[in-house]
Structures are given as structure tokens and as C-alpha cells.
């Protein structure tokens, strides 16, 4: 699960501000990737969002953005063309280079795939390129305007319906896409390439994948998407692309000296430093990714809960779960449970119930809020049950921690 998703803006090739979203993994990114969406789509189309999120789960940060005049980006779509899209892509790579880290992986869907093939040579840090349902030449999209072609040629522009929405297409757009030739750019980009395409793609035929693959130099790979549609509208198709892409890209991305998010078997927790700050930790609890840190006042980055916060979270979660299980077992009309916890060190002499009388002891205060049509005896029973939660018992019992060194 991506722990953070940031909304960003940056200037595009024409100076307009472009809207973007950066999906970040739980730990430090293994690498950054750039995603270009399909023709007249936006960064928030299902496939783009799913693939970006799934790659973030694999430790790859992904920037996806709206091309000029689309989605939440500024500008007039009618004044854009394929060349301006390529320019926007290069500016997106520049933005990552200036603010985070230059993208090592560039991904393009449909016409966005053609754009990344054209832009790849202008992003020297990129070592790998992926296309999904991409046309071999930008002019492929001209078939969308066949009925309006005569009007565009005569009047210089025309309004056409694309995926049910009106777009104004100018003559300069047609002239630009027809002047583009990608074969030389594909052959000369000197980057690893993977081509994803569905054999039954009704929008961009499979022959386009063959032309791209043939033009590219090794290393290159092709993955058939079986019966997926052009937009990867099924969740499983988008996730499949992300899983295969992440595994394929691992060979080329490396870690740039940073630690990839740790992995842990079920029932095991692995914690390791991320290298981001003095205290920042990446945590794997089975398949789940977390992080821990200290507040800035203690010298940390405050990028995650502190170790004591995590202890309180464990006790709070266990408390709520235990009450819920009891209510279900007794068929009680419990609606919600809310647990609030605080931790502090107090002087032992201030604790009348404690056996320890010297130094300081840990004190956890737990407040439980229960809602539902419950009588007083039922509420009191639930509060008593809270003390029987397994984590509570562990904290109050004798605990043995055995430490060994792994070599």
C-alpha cells in the first residue's frame, strides 16, 4: 500500500501549470517513475491510478500528470499536439530531477506510450521504458477524426467527439502527428524496453506492438495482455501489468544506495533503517508496510509514529477487537468502539497500586468510548473484558526478550 499520495503542480512545456499526483511507497523509493496517460484521458484514469499504486507497493514512486489542456491542468487542449505532449513529459522529468530524483523508468499508455518513446532520449537518467497498448506512430490517432477531416482541412479546426466528450482539433494537430516518425527514436534510445499489448485490442491493433518491438534494440521484452481491453478497465489487468513491470524493471533500476522496503513472512516483523534520517525505520509486518520515526523535536523527521505510539496503537487495536468479539459472542447491540491512549513516565511513589516504589514507571491511560443500546451492566462488563485483551496481558506480564545476532 502506498503510504502517501501528494498533489503537485509544475510548469509544462508551454508554461501552463500542470496538475500531477506523486504516489510514494511506505519506505524510501527504490527509484522514481513517470507515467504518461492515454489520448484525451487524464492522470486519474483507472489504469494509471492502479498501476501507479501497485508500483508504489513495490517501492517505486510514480509521478502521473495531466497533459496541457486536460484534467486539472491549465491550457487549451486545441493548441496542443504530440510535440507539446513530448515537451510536457520532458518537463515532468525535469521537475522530478529538480525536486526529488530523475525518473529511471518511463511508462506510457496508448498515445502516452508513443510520447515516452519519443521523449526517452531526452531523459538521460531513464534506463527503462514501458509501453502499454501504444501505437507505433502518433498518426494512428487520426482515425478518430476521419469524419471531421474535411472540415478540419477547410476551416482549420473542428469539434469532434472522443469517448463521449467534445474536443476541438486543429489542423496543426494533424500536421504534427503526421510528421512524426518514431522508428529512429525507438532504435536509438539505448534503454531497456518492455511492450505490453492485448492481441484483441480494438483501439490500437497488435501490429503496432510488433513494429515497436522490431524497431527496438535489445534488451527488449513483449508481454501479451490476453483479453484485456485497451484502457485496462478491469482491475486485475492493471495490477498484472504493474506486477510484471515491477519485476522486470528491478533488473535495471537498482537501489541507488537506498534500502528497498523490507519483506517479512507471515507472523514475523522486520524493522530496518531507511537512511532518510537519524531514526526513520521501514517496518514489514507480514505483507504490510509501515514506518516509524521520532518527532522533529527529538531529532527525527516525524515521518511516522514513534515506537511508543506503535505500542499504544497495538494496545488500542487489541482492546477494540476484544470488545467487538465479546459483543458478537454475546449478541450485544454494540455499534462502535473508540479507544484513546496516552503514555508517560511517572514517579513510582505517585502510584499507590504499584509494587515498585523507586525511580519511574510507565503509565498508560486508556479511555474507551462505547456506543450502542447497552445497559450499565453490559457496559461495565465490556470495560472489564478490555483488561483481558492479549496485548494488555502481555504488557502486564513477565516478558522475556531474547536477542541474537544475525550474521
Report on the structure:
The protein has 407 residues and is an alpha/beta fold. The chain has 2 domains: 4-253, Alpha/Beta hydrolase fold, catalytic domain (Rossmann fold, 3-Layer(aba) Sandwich); 307-396, GMP Synthetase, Chain A, domain 3 (2-Layer Sandwich). It is built from 11 helices and 15 strands. It has helices at 46-57, 82-99, 111-119, 149-155, 171-179, 183-188, 206-215, 235-253, 307-330, 376-386, 390-396, and strands at 4-11, 17-24, 31-36, 60-65, 105-109, 128-132, 157-162, 165-170, 192-197, 220-224, 269-273, 281-285, 288-292, 334-347, 360-372. Strands 1-2-4-3-5-6-9-10 form an 8-stranded mixed β-sheet, with helices on both faces. A 3-stranded antiparallel β-sheet has the order 11-12-13, with no helix packed on it. A hairpin with a 2-residue loop joins strand 7 (157-162) and strand 8 (165-170). The longest helix is centred in the C-terminal third of the chain and has 24 residues, at 307-330. It is elongated. The mean pLDDT is 87.
Query: In sequence order, what are the helices and strands, one letter per element?
Result: EEEHEHEHEHEEHHEHEHEEEHEEHH
Mean pLDDT: 87
Number of β-strand runs = 15
Major sheet characteristics: 8 strands, mixed
Low-confidence segments: none
CATH domain class of the largest domain = Alpha Beta
Shape: elongated
> Which structural class do you get from the secondary structure elements?
alpha/beta
What is the count of DSSP helices, taking H or I runs of 4+ residues?
A: 11
- Helix fraction, binned, reads 25-40%
Estimate nothing, just give the exact number of structural domains.
Answer: 2
- Assign the CATH architecture of the largest domain: 3-Layer(aba) Sandwich
For the terminal residues, how far apart are their CA atoms? 30 Å
Look up the CATH topology of the largest domain.
Rossmann fold
Q: Please list the strands of the largest sheet in the order they lie side by side.
A: 1-2-4-3-5-6-9-10
* Assembly form of the protein: single chain
CA gyration radius, whole angstroms: 28 Å
Q: How big a fraction of the residues is strand? A: 25-35%
CATH superfamily descriptor of the largest domain: Alpha/Beta hydrolase fold, catalytic domain
